[in-house]
Amino acid sequence: MKYGAKLRICGLFLFFLSLTICACGRGESPGDVQNTEGDVLVPVAEFQDMKLPVPLEAFRLYTCNDEWFYAVGLQYDSEKHKGCWYIYRGRAADEFVAEKYVAREGFNLLTLLADREDCCYLYMQEKNGDFFLEKYDAGGELSWHTDCETSELLHKGERLTDGIVTGDGRVILYDYGAGGSAFVFGAEGGLQGISTPDLDSLEGIVEGQEGRIYGYCITGEEPIFVNIEDSEERFVCPMTPLQAYGGGEDGIYLRTGDGLWKYSPEDGEIERLWLWDDEYVQIDGSQVCRISRGEKTINLTCQRPARKGMDWKGGTITFASVGFESSRDYPEKQPVTISRSFYQANDEYSSHHMDELVQQYNRQSRKYKVVILLPDEDMLSDNSRFELFGALEMQLVRGQGPDLIEVQGLNVDNLAAKGALEDLTRYYESSDVVGSEDILESVRKAGMVAGRDTVVIPAFHLRTLRSREKVDADDWTPLRFLETMQGDGELIFPVASQRDALWYCMGVSLGGHFVDYEKRECYFDSEEFRTVLEACGSWEAERSHARAAGNLEVGAEQAGMIRREQRGSEAKWLLNQVVINNMFDLLVYNQKGIYWPGYPGWNGAETQLGIMDGFVMNSASENKEGAWDFLEFLLSKELQDSIDWGFPARQDSFEDYLASSYMAKEDSSLEFGYFIETPQQPGQEDYDIIREMTDRAVYRPAGFYFNDNPVRVILEEETGMYFAGDATLEETVRKIQSRVTLYLNEM
User: Fold this and answer.
1) 578 forms bridges with which residues in the sheet?
2) Rounded CA gap, 225 and 232, in Å?
3) The pLDDT value given to residue 388
4) Which of 72, 173, 202, 204 could be 160's S-S partner, Cβ–Cβ 3.0 to 4.6 Å?
């Protein structure tokens, strides 16, 4: 396959276009390191992902060494009336085939550690309040046991929840905070010494050169390191790191937001090892949780944070090994520029997600590197998003701009009509990674503009309506919807105003019924639109949650209650809107007595196909080969199989996702000492619902549902006057038809 499991990565370069942008650049190799032949050495990372069978939060404790992941689960024996702690371990190379490594009865497990020899250390509390420390060898056999009385640990035993294992086999446990102490145990067990470093707050213990052990505080007025064994001398660190790690003979590793450094407290020297966005590094420094020195590499363990509602089935641990290679074997790559949506620029979750996609691509590409371009912050603050989009669109029309553009809020129809966007049909036809026939039909249609493959959509979610009454999907039109809305006091639908009701009547594909962007025609003077507008105008204004619930003043607590009521069959609303990101969402909402009519559409029920990321290629790009290589990667089987932020766009990956998306309770993580509170394995009905939603899903990339869309602005202004009684129906229809026609002609 073109895209392998073991990935290499690259970095970002400073790049400017006429649109004010900012990007990160490639840093120099550490100190311009040279080998014996005089070549400049560059940091190169190799990766191996390990998918866990349950979320990381499922485990009471977990730790890693350079190869193994160790995790603790608790199981309660009802017959013995006691719990048993199970230590599991697994390797990425074995796809985490978990094995019960150690089983240990005990009152409370406080600390779990592992060394580079694959030995494991348990620090536990007895029911009588005393403590013990144990070492288990690579085979899970007990090597030694050390008892500790509460007084022996200065009555801090319960606070010793972290520690390190030194290179010579000593175990050091410590407590955080002011007056924190380090308790040193020998390589064969037994408490050897106690140190309370002269620090405002003990924040960690690390091992440096020649086995020296340091306590540190990095959040005070200045970062301080103290040798806890030989001296109380305080060493002021010349930089403020986010975290410190033991680097052995390299000294101490300091992680900052920009990169990794090594530090020697005695001489005060700091040397940069790499920047996170170096061309062949590309690690998200915020995800690093462990760093250690290997024989020839520096090894990092990275933990990806749980996604909102997405990571319910398992977690991911990534092992990264960084070595230094000749720059002749790892030359600079060709940049491929991509403009981030101005909506994404202010959305932390969306922007981070796009960063991940780019990073995954850059890790495996040896020829190209994707560079994310951002609007200047001053432009975001001083201009409306509509003006910024207009500036970008003008660039594209003039044959300028980035190679790729994220489409959220972009008027794709207009740009495609002017020839500014590349037709991707020939790229699909010549690709040995993905063809257009490999994409789900609804997703492919969503990416087509004027009959041409234009937008690449890697993943999608489904937005729809559910109902407590069965609705004929073929008859579910805006007119039928409006009839349903005319209830007799029943809680019908939690919309807030006449305008909101109008938006639902427009259908998911506004441009497909009342606006034809290709022909530059609109039909707001039709009898259909008149009927809809008049019906919405006669509907009770400001029918809010509070009014429908009995004129209660709805605060945060009541609003939360309303949302909870909407989740199950006890929902009070006849209709309510939900977003389905995965099978878990469906099973939460798909309770007994619930139906899925979808949104009203002029040709029957519709589901809204939502996207988090969609990309188009600039027809004037000077690096179309590199731009397509990135798009092709997004649709590769390897990347599609890894999607956990929505449903994958490939047919085969979509079906594989459905087949493996859920665990029955009897097959859940009980063996790991944790029980996931989820519904049962979905049945055929649940799969059919998802497939039906997907088959009828519709997406319109013109950005109508953004407030900056001109058509939406016109409708809001004119219908607002009508709903307020300041304009007649005919006046409103005439003005809307005239203004939208003028806008289409100006396009």
Assistant:
1) 464
2) 10
3) 67
4) 173
* Distance separating alpha carbons of residues 234 and 232, to the nearest angstrom: 6
Are 651 and 438 a contacting pair, CB within 8 Å? yes
> Domains in the chain, please, with CATH?
57-287 (2.120.10), 334-458+613-661 (3.40.190.10), 461-610+698-746 (3.40.190)
Task: Give the C-alpha separation, 305 to 125, whole Å.
Answer: 30
Q: How many CB atoms lie within 10 A of CB 240?
A: 12
pLDDT score, position 4: 37
What pLDDT is attached to residue 512?
A: 67
Dist CA 184 CA 192 (whole Å): 6
Question: What is the torsional sign of CA 63, 68, 69, 71?
Answer: negative
What are the CA-CA distances from residue 535 to residues 92, 140, 439 (Å)?
60, 73, 39
- The owner of tokens 């991707």 is 424
Nearest partner of 146 among 133, 137, 135, judged by Cα: 133
What is the reported pLDDT for 424?
A: 97
Please report, for residues 121, 385, 420, 740, 745, the alpha-carbon distance to residue 343 in angstroms, rounded to integers and kept in the order given.
48, 8, 21, 24, 27
Place of tokens 């001296």: 231
Number of CB atoms found within 10 A of residue 333's CB: 20
Show the beta-strand stretches assigned E in 439-574. Answer: 448-449, 452-453, 459-467, 515-516, 521-522
**Sign of the dihedral through C-alpha 689, 695, 701, 702:** negative
* CA 559 to each of CA 347, 570, 579: distance values in angstroms, whole numbers, following the listed order: 24, 16, 18
Q: How far is the C-alpha of 358 from the C-alpha of 634, rounded, in Å?
A: 9
Q: Which pLDDT value is given to residue 529?
A: 94
Label each residue of 501-532 as H, E or C. HHHHHCCCCHHHHCEECCCCEECCCCHHHHHH
Instruction: Provide the whole-model pTM.
Output: 0.81
Residue 87 in contact with residue 71, Cβ under 8 Å? yes
Q: Are 682 and 493 contacting, i.e. CB atoms less than 8 angstroms apart?
A: no
Sort strands 252-255 and 259-264 into parallel, antiparallel or unpaired.
Answer: antiparallel
Which residues in the chain show pLDDT less than 70? 1-38, 76-81, 306-314, 342-352, 375-389, 486-496, 509-512, 540-573, 661-682, 700-708
Residue 478 structure tokens: 């805006």
Q: What is the pLDDT of residue 445?
A: 92
